[in-house]
Write a structure and sequence with these properties.
The protein has about 280 residues and is α+β, with helices and mostly antiparallel strands. The protein has 10 helices and 9 strands. The strands form 2 sheets. It has a 7-stranded antiparallel beta sheet with strand order 4-3-2-1-5-7-6, with helices on both faces. It binds zinc ion (ZN).
């Protein structure tokens, strides 16, 4: 989704996506991306005045202290202070989303932490609950300091956790290594909250409901998810695409690794031809 060659376009696209999915609303939400020593920000009142149908030329570019390079100072999002504070505190953060996701905000409006229950949330942002900062004046440096403090606390407990926090009665801040992940943190957290709320409505008073997590997924297990794995046991007997009885030798068998790309494409062509003729 995110076009890294065109940051301004990416901000417009992700803004529309956040709006269409109900994670930001007409009253607020803003997005920024860091590229080297430059910050790209969505313009002020993108929701209120444009329902997030904004064009690339409206994206403002500044230095690290909000001095505009492209665009006007008065057009920068009103929440920009928190964005700059986060960038200056966390060099690894390259993109930030401030959103108003209603299910997350339901927890914030009760000053309740959000436990990570869904597999997506636990694997993407980690098992730490998403916590609230103190109620703050929107757009203030007070809010910015509290968001940075919240993220520092999260990192102290789990250095690999995703950076996301709730602001009571207001919204959330998500900060990540790129805009895809800043969006992903919002989406998995919001789905996590939908699950929590749904199961409370559906099963909260049912004594038969077991709401506990039976397997606490470890960081090692999370890291293993993307590793390549054998789909069959070595020695498994099966019929190959040519109809021959064969024995599985493993993905990394010497035979497989010696097969040239040319031979693979020839086999693929042959299989496709046979499928076509059948
Ligand atoms: Zn807001």
């Amino acid at each position: 989704m995110v076009n890294t060659k065109n940051i301004r376009k990416s901000i417009c696209e992700v803004g529309k996506l956040l709006y269409d999915r109900g994670y930001i609303d007409a009253s607020g939400g803003n997005i920024s991306v860091r590229d080297g020593d430059k910050i790209y920000l969505s313009p002020r009142q993108s929701g209120e005045h444009h329902q997030w149908t904004i064009d690339e030329d409206s994206i403002i570019v500044t230095d690290m202290c909000k001095i505009p390079i492209i665009g006007e100072l008065s057009k920068i999002t009103r929440e920009s202070v928190s964005h700059y504070y986060i960038y200056n505190a966390f060099p690894e953060v390259k993109a930030i989303v401030h959103a108003h996701p209603p299910f997350m905000m339901s927890f914030g409006s009760a000053h309740m932490d959000i436990p990570a229950v869904s597999e997506g949330t636990r694997c993407v942002i980690g098992t730490l609950p998403i916590t609230n900062i103190e109620e703050s004046i929107p757009g203030s440096s007070q809010q910015a300091e509290r968001v940075v403090e919240n993220f520092n606390q999260r990192k102290k407990i789990d250095p690999e956790c995703g950076l996301i926090c709730n602001i009571p009665f207001h919204g959330i801040f998500s900060a990540a290594s790129d805009l895809n992940y800043a969006f992903l943190f919002v989406e998995v957290s919001e789905i996590n909250c939908k699950i929590l709320i749904n199961r409370q409505i559906m099963f909260g008073n049912n004594p038969k409901a077991d709401l506990s997590i039976h397997h606490q997924i470890t960081r090692e297990e999370i890291n293993s998810i993307g590793q390549d794995k054998e789909a069959c046991e070595i020695g498994f007997k099966y019929r190959d695409p040519f109809g021959n009885e064969t024995v599985y030798q493993g993905q990394k068998s010497p035979l497989a690794s010696n097969v040239s790309a040319d031979l693979i494409s020839k086999i693929t062509e042959e299989v496709l031809r046979k499928l076509k003729n059948n």
